[in-house]
Amino acid sequence: MDILIVDSWLREYLQTDATPREIKDYLSLCGPSVERLQKVGGDWLYHIEVTTNRVDSASVMGIAREAAAILPRFGKKAIFTPRLPRLPKSPKFHLPLTIRVEDKTLCSRIMAVIINGVLVEKSPEIIRKRLEMVGIRSLNTIVDITNYVMVETGHPTHVFDYDRIGTNTLVIRKAKKGEKLITLDKKSFTLKGGESIIDDGTGRIIDLPGIMGCANSVVTKDTKRVLFFLETNDPVQMRTASMMHGIRTQAVTLNEKGIDPQLTQTALAMGISFFEKWTSGVVASKIHDWYPNPAKVKKVSVAKTKAFSYLGTTLPDAEIKTILHSLGFETQITKTVIEVIVPNHRSADIAIPEDVIEELARIYGYHRLPAQLPTGQLPEFQLPKILTLEGTIKQLLKGWDYTETYTYSFVCARDAQLSSYPLQDHVALLNPLSADATHMRRSLIPSLARTMAENQSRADHIRLFELANVYIPVNKKLPHEEPSLCIAQQDSYQDLKGIVEGLLVQLGFPEVVFQPSKHPLFTDNQTAVIKINNKIIGYCGTIAPSLHLEYGIKRAVVAAHISVEDLLELPTQPKRFTPIPKHPNIIEDFSLVFPPQTLIGPVITEIETMSPIIKEVLLVGVFEDTQTFRVTFQHPTKNLTKDDIATLRHKILSSVEKKFNGKLRE
Amino acid sequence: MTIQTLTTLFLELEQDARNAIGQITTLAHLEHVYLAYFGAKGEFTQLAKKIAEVPRDERKAVGQLINNVKQTIEHALDQKKTELSSGITSLWLDVTIPGTKPITGHLHIVTQAIEEITAIFARIGFYRLRYPEIDSDWYAFESLNMPPHHPARDEWETFFIENSKFSKIVLTPHTSNGQVREMERQKPPIRMINIAKCYRRQSDVSHVPMFHQFEGLYVDKDVSIPHLKGVLNHFVTQFFGKERKVRIRPFHFQFTEPSFEIDITCDVCNGSGCKLCKEGWLELGGAGMVHPTVLKNGGIDPEKFSGFAFGWGVERTYMMKQGIKIDDIRMLYSNDIRFLQQF
User: Fold this and answer.
1) Strands (E), A221-292
2) Which chain B residues are Cβ-neighbours of A235 within 8 angstroms?
3) Any CB–CB contact under 8 A between A207 and chain B?
């Protein structure tokens, strides 16, 4: 939480020769981080970030206490000089007040006092100026006192108009569902049930304690008698109620972090002294104090070996004492153990040995500790295959002129539907940031098609790829995250297929099969399923006309979508050595004519697998209906004769004719 | 004739021959030059005959010299002949012509940053892993000492997944979900870098709803704050450069105790203070000594082992590198080809 501290106000609690600049620098190194130092009028304002566990230092008093411990480590004088007003004695004349706590889990302490004869006026200039510097609007003496006490001590406080309560009774209880209240800023709320509320004994709600007062009981310009009321609320309850109703006040920001109940008394006494001084009010009731379970003395021990192991160095007892005492701890140090008694204001955050180590280390100074690389044993480890595989794919595609994209994992409902899976088969966000990003994608194709469309006017020759997870919902389990690859471009299908084949060969899969297929993301009759060992690993082809239309793509996009996870599960073919042939090969071209729409892939496979002597079959030319194949013959142990070739030639031609109705061109 | 005179004559002849060969432009010309030296009436042939005029006992030395000269000239002629027959010298080459560039693609800067980060940590034995992006509330928060309703959860603007039947699932707002998962997978020593996508409900010039983090986790016996400083120094000097300094300051996270904020010196002002930094320092990210509750949740005895952890944004860290100035982080995910192809 970010707080503002006024330098002159801080110095009421801190006697020091340190300059504001020094305070800023040294606090940041060992305590709360001072983000900015700002000159305001003749004063200085510190912008300080207090961590959530240190609500005790979110006040003028708290920062002064920290500064008093830290500044002397940098050679500065610093003494903590808290204002500690005493509680007044009970007056002879008592105004009646009954406080009833119906649910003891709601708060741990309540203190209250009635002040009679207050004057609702303008506050003294110094009060107004200081409150305004820390961003609080000055209203009148009464309200300003509650805020001034809160900023100074870190304890939220509240005042009721005693006469507006009417019944002299406060009942602290949990709200029932459907109860209504109007807060002091005139907003009405219907309660969900379970919120901590105060009613006046008749069921009329007069306060949402710890969060915000109610319009029906706040002070007005005519107020004469006030009930000054402080309570220590259950932090979880505070937070839940405040989040549920969206009411975020400075009070609740403090209350939800847990206020020290011992502080309640200090804050009450301070408030009373201000009422007496600035409003001519007088105490008109006993000091009410409901505190069923007073805080106990808390002790924490830490073994010296452990502390010194964390620090990487040892500290003499005297230094340990100096550090801990400066923070308000009492210590008992033996040869092996440091035992501390935790001061009240730290009882919420100091619980385990490591907490004490932190106090020692930060005040000693992290900047004074050395830097050493760890020397311990190295763990046994094998890099996950998926990471190696992805790295290889990225490097290869980069070398082949592709640009890598990173598109968002979440897509809009429309893109999700375009992925060919119904919307309900997606992992959906409960609280999306915008309608553009509501579902975790199941395909990378819509994202890449969109990217292609966005870039089409920026370059002519776009080749994109992305490696990312797609997300598959799994019943009663975490969704499955499947690493996938998408390649998209506006070149020919043949180029894309060559890239996919080349990629798969490099990854150890020389035997890849492309078969005509159908897929909702691709155009009919222009789609191939990609298989290895008869397992489908992906699809490629021209993306569906609906995608072109949806994103306004002007030139046909061809794409491949491959499950990288599936590749991981397939056996790769290791590179093997084949002896370099001693005998020359023979190369022969065949120009064949096929009926229209004959698939050439199977023709090549047919010829290749016909004889071990056929080493390679290439498609070297296509002219009208004629396809020219270049066949390489090679025998491992002998020279091939004319007769050998003639036999094979005949075999090829007869088989191609029989199976594919292909004929040698006349 | 003295041996000195003859030697001088031969060396002069060699020099003349070299000059003549240098001026040859055609094969016919070359043949002509050859004959001018080694033909029956050639200069070399004539001069060689003078060996007879040298005293007998010195002839051996002269013979050696003559042979060397002959070989040198013949070699120069051969070289010239190769040059002429290959046609190389007949061409004029414009050495300033634009080169034909190889086709190259571009890896996204996030990929490049991840590769660099991975390599830097690998050098000190930290291995890379990738834990889930969508995870249970247990791994993302609760096992990290953040019970439900804890205000510390506010710092992560978390996306939740629609799911009524199963316990709460989130898009991980940080890579720290890998901490307890890694403790369950591997007994100490642990030296992990978990790099994965993360998600937070925020989008402005310095935030994107999807980003990447790298999470370091080291668990062993006697792990100290100086060890953390050592690892930070290693990373900062390797990634940002030797001149950059690093410091740690107190902070608070629920899953580390003590916790730190890490600063590095600003590259613009070199630590002296300027508009872009806080008095010479830039915030790099958070770190801390692993909280004993987290170790316990990972099945590790905090009495025997301790550790440290840190988790920072890949994009942010990369953009803090010298020379890379991108004023709107959302540019990284715009996928504008004019941006992507700059890297």
Assistant:
1) 225-233, 282-283, 288-290
2) 151
3) no
